[in-house]
């Protein structure tokens, strides 16, 4: 099919069929449909112009966001040979932001090779997204929230989802080939049955590095809090997490993995899934607090609560952080019911107890370089801390809404100090509470 066929005659194709997923990405049923059949039809009245068009490329998936003051009727067609996604938008103008979209495609984008647009009909704008390979798309709409208007979201996933465990193993192999530290013996004196999701090591070894999942908060569409100098929480969290990862990886017998390694959004449940998939011994979510009063200051550490928040401030913060899915943009039809059921059904009592212990160590560490907002670990219903089998804490490194602390968060030197203080607390915790032995993952 020629470029003109894409833009002017998208309903026709010389034979063939496309493979289309009509259900969730990881539990899908495939159907063969004619290329002319449209996916996800949406019929809305009164559509307005597109005020913003944004791209968020990442190895995990690439996200396209179209935003307007009113709902945007949209239809999606998948074409093959070569692979393309065609998105028809009804009743919108070819505004300047939309016209700039092709120039925002990055050469490093793993899924999008280019974007073209034109008029399919007087009232329909057609976007043709040229792909580097076949993808699995998810298309959904979001209602206005947190300053955003009506959004149409197109996520392009690889046909084979990236496996965080395999990525961690590959990272370990690369480090070993480059002279990195070999896997050390477990320090645990106790033994226990392997976790339900653990995969046996082919060598039958019970040697394993302590694995820490680091979770930089927010990302992509969700900036988190924004300081008066324009500092974004999502950037600060990622910068500190990267520094902390490097420090942990340099420790014998320890390694770290990131739930996101670039500026893109990861749903809260997916962050928990990633930590469980790599059989993490600890989950640390990294944030930068904010409050309406600029004098609020200090670092805080939080754990999960089964019985309500320990303070009104902790409850408010948990509600704010739990709203990340609505701001960042989650396909509510694509949630994993098995994961949700697991998080609700399994007892969290032991996890919470261990989380409080590690939280105190990290609070002690971070208190050595910054004032503490509260001297005790607080608790509330943070969704991202609900892994039933992994001690999990959320660290608010400092108040990005405080002018003095915002300067610290912007400083490379202070970011390293935050990371170093957290590493020290983590090391103290594992020195006193070594993780249970389990089969090796490399």
Essential attributes:
442 residues, disordered N terminus, alpha/beta, globular, 4-stranded antiparallel sheet, 11 helices, 24% strand, 28% helix, 6-stranded mixed sheet
Commentary on this structure:
The chain is an alpha/beta fold. 28% of the residues lie in helices and 24% in strands. It contains 11 helices and 16 strands. The protein has helices at residues 3-8, 96-99, 164-177, 233-249, 268-277, 312-322, 324-328, 337-345, 349-366, 403-410, 412-432, and strands at residues 18-21, 30-33, 52-56, 62-68, 74-79, 84-90, 112-121, 124-131, 135-142, 150-158, 210-216, 254-258, 282-289, 300-304, 378-380, 392-399. A 6-stranded mixed β-sheet has the order 12-11-13-16-14-15, with helices on both faces. It has a 4-stranded antiparallel β-sheet with strand order 3-4-10-9, with no helix packed on it. The chain starts with a helix and ends in a 10-residue tail after the last helix.
List the helices and strands and how they pair.
Layout (H helix, E strand, L loop, with lengths): L2 H6 L9 E4 L8 E4 L18 E5 L5 E7 L5 E6 L4 E7 L5 H4 L12 E10 L2 E8 L3 E8 L7 E9 L5 H14 L32 E7 L16 H17 L4 E5 L9 H10 L4 E8 L10 E5 L7 H11 L1 H5 L8 H9 L3 H18 L11 E3 L11 E8 L3 H8 L1 H21 L10
Parallel strand pairs: 11-12, 11-13, 13-16, 14-15
Antiparallel strand pairs: 1-2, 3-4, 4-10, 5-6, 6-8, 7-8, 9-10, 14-16
Q: Which structural class fits the helix and strand makeup?
A: alpha/beta
| Separate helix tally | 11
The residue-averaged pLDDT reads 80
Order of helices and strands: HEEEEEEHEEEEHEHEHEEHHHHEEHH
Shape: globular
The spatial strand order of the largest sheet comes to 12-11-13-16-14-15
Number of strands: 16
State the distance separating the first and last CA atoms.
47 Å
């Amino acid at each position: 099919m020629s470029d003109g066929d894409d833009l002017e005659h998208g309903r026709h194709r010389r034979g063939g069929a496309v493979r289309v997923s009509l259900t969730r990405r990881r539990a899908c049923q495939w159907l063969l449909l004619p290329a002319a059949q449209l996916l996800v039809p949406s019929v809305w009245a009164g559509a307005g112009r597109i005020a913003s068009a944004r791209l968020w490329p990442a190895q995990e998936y690439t996200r396209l966001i179209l935003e307007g003051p009113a709902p945007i009727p949209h239809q999606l067609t998948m074409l093959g040979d070569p692979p393309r996604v065609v998105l028809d938008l009804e009743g919108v103008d070819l505004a300047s932001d939309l016209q700039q979209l092709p120039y925002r495609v990055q050469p490093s984008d793993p899924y999008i090779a280019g974007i073209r647009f034109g008029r399919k009909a007087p009232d329909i704008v057609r976007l043709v997204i040229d792909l580097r390979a076949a993808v699995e798309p998810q298309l959904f709409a979001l209602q206005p929230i947190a300053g955003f208007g009506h959004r149409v979201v197109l996520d392009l996933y690889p046909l084979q989802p990236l496996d965080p465990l395999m990525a961690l193993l590959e990272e370990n192999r690369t480090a070993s080939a480059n002279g990195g530290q070999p896997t050390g013996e477990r320090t645990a004196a106790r033994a226990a049955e392997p976790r339900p999701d653990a995969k046996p090591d082919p060598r039958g070894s019970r040697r394993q590095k302590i694995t820490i999942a680091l979770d930089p908060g927010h990302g992509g569409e969700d900036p988190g809090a924004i300081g008066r100098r324009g500092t974004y929480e999502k950037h600060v969290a990622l910068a500190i997490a990267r520094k902390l990862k490097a420090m942990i990886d340099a420790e014998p017998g320890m390694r770290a993995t990131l739930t996101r390694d670039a500026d893109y959004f990861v749903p809260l449940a997916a962050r928990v899934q990633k930590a469980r998939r790599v059989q993490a011994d600890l989950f640390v979510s990294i944030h930068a607090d904010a409050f309406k009063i600029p004098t609020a200051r200090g670092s805080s550490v939080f754990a999960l609560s089964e019985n309500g928040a320990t303070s009104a401030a902790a409850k408010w913060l948990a509600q704010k952080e739990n709203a990340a899915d609505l701001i960042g943009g989650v396909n509510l039809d694509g949630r994993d019911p098995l994961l949700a059921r697991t998080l609700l059904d399994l007892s969290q009592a032991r996890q919470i107890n261990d989380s409080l212990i590690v939280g105190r160590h990290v609070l002690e560490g971070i208190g050595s370089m910054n004032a503490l907002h509260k001297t005790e670990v607080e608790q509330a219903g943070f969704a991202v801390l609900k892994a039933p089998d992994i001690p999990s804490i959320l660290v608010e490194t400092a108040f990005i809404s405080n002018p003095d602390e915002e300067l610290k968060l912007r400083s490379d030197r202070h970011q390293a100090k935050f990371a170093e203080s957290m590493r020290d607390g983590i090391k103290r915790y594992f020195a006193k509470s070594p993780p249970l032995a389990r089969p090796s993952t490399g």
